[in-house]
Design goal:
CATH superfamily of the largest domain: Glycogen Phosphorylase B
Distance between the termini: 16 Å
Strand order of the largest sheet: 2-1-3-4-5-6
Helix content: 40-55%
Largest sheet: 6 strands, parallel
Structural class: alpha/beta
Number of strands: 12
CATH class of the largest domain: Alpha Beta
CATH topology of the largest domain: Rossmann fold
Length: 351
């Protein structure tokens, strides 16, 4: 009888969140690649009992309570997609509520026997700032399936149909950003870069996933009333259509001030779409040289503008950027990440 893995999550209950996408991709990966060794319940429910390994992908209170009985049955794992520093600029809360939420988050991670983080930088932060044992924290990167995200032929009719849908004239270069509408995502720098490149169409896929409690909601709402003529906020695009959107784009531009290793970067690279991001410490050890990392303070857009101009222009720079994205997709391939998960889960089983 094979050992069992129960995956618990409610991260995909709100559309447009990278955590939900990461959960779906990880479950799909292990169901496909590890089923020879494990029986996997990818959408486990608490009433269904626990497995030999119980993997909690979100920090819901019912999962916090469930970890104690789950630990009696098998190993418990918490997936670390965020820590207090990376949430503070996403959700607007009164200071007392923020303190309670941060304490709860860290208590959740401490209660789990093992932690998996999507970014190696987290291991140092959790150990140095919050006193957690680094020996129980493992870095395993996010992953996207090549079945879902891959290059399309330039004349694929779905690309033309999406251009029509979003009002992008044929032949006009397209720069895409995808993510929640938040100040920390670099929304206002995105608009400033668009104003500097009026011949380019800028698309943003995503909305206010947290509604009015989203940090900067009122400021962004005001800006949305006077968007540059070449900016289209297309809202939430169904995940099944995002591959076409990444292929429609000539460049993926993510000017965030705070990111770990977003699923959108992996998705863009899987489509061989060149990536331009702000240079962040969080990208060290994960993004390597697969994207153009621009050192720019808030409001400093000149280097973003220059890099996008170079990438959008046919020639050697664009060809190299496409090749970089392709190498990134190959590095984070199914076999490599599946091996890491197999090694991790196997080590949790009793000797």
């Amino acid at each position: 009888m094979k050992p069992t893995i129960h995956a618990f999550s409610k991260a995909d209950s709100v559309a447009g969140q990278g955590v939900g996408s990461a959960y779906l991709e990880q479950v799909q990966l292990i169901e496909r690649e590890l089923s020879d060794q494990f029986d996997i319940l990818g959408r486990a429910r608490l009433r269904g009992g626990f497995g030999d390994i119980n993997h909690f992908h979100s920090i819901n209170p019912e999962y916090f309570a469930a970890m104690i009985p789950a630990a009696r049955r098998g190993a418990t794992v918490a997936h670390v997609h965020f820590i207090p520093e990376t949430v503070n600029d996403s959700i607007r809360m009164p200071r007392p509520a923020r303190a309670v939420f941060d304490r709860y988050m860290l208590a959740f991670y401490r209660r789990a026997q093992h932690l998996v983080t999507v970014n190696p930088w987290f291991i140092t932060k959790l150990a140095d700032d919050y006193g957690m044992d680094p020996q129980r924290i493992t870095f395993i990167p996010n992953f996207v399936s090549a079945d879902d995200f891959h290059p399309l032929a330039a004349d694929d009719p779905r690309i033309a149909a999406m251009r029509t849908r979003f009002g992008v004239p044929t032949g006009r270069p397209v720069v895409l950003c995808a993510g929640q509408l938040q100040v920390r995502k670099g929304f206002f720098d995105f608009l400033a870069v668009a104003r500097a490149l009026p011949h380019v169409q800028f698309l943003w896929a995503g909305d206010f996933s947290f509604g009015r409690i989203t940090a900067g909601h009122s400021e962004i709402t005001r800006a949305m009333r006077e968007l540059p003529a070449n900016v289209n906020l297309v809202g939430l695009v169904p995940r099944g259509e995002m591959n076409v959107l990444f292929n429609l784009a000539d460049a993926f531009f993510l000017p965030s001030f705070e990111e770990l290793f977003p699923m959108t970067i992996l998705e863009a690279m899987a489509a061989h779409t060149p990536v331009v991001v702000r240079d962040l410490v969080y990208y060290d050890g994960v993004l390597h040289d697969y994207a153009a990392r621009i050192d720019a303070a808030p409001g400093e857009i000149d280097r973003f503008v220059q890099q996008l101009q170079r990438i959008l222009e046919p020639g050697a720079v664009r060809d190299a950027a496409v090749a970089d994205a392709r190498r990134g997709a190959e590095f984070y391939n199914r076999d490599s990440v599946a091996r890491q998960w197999r090694d991790f889960y196997t080590a949790l089983l009793p000797a």
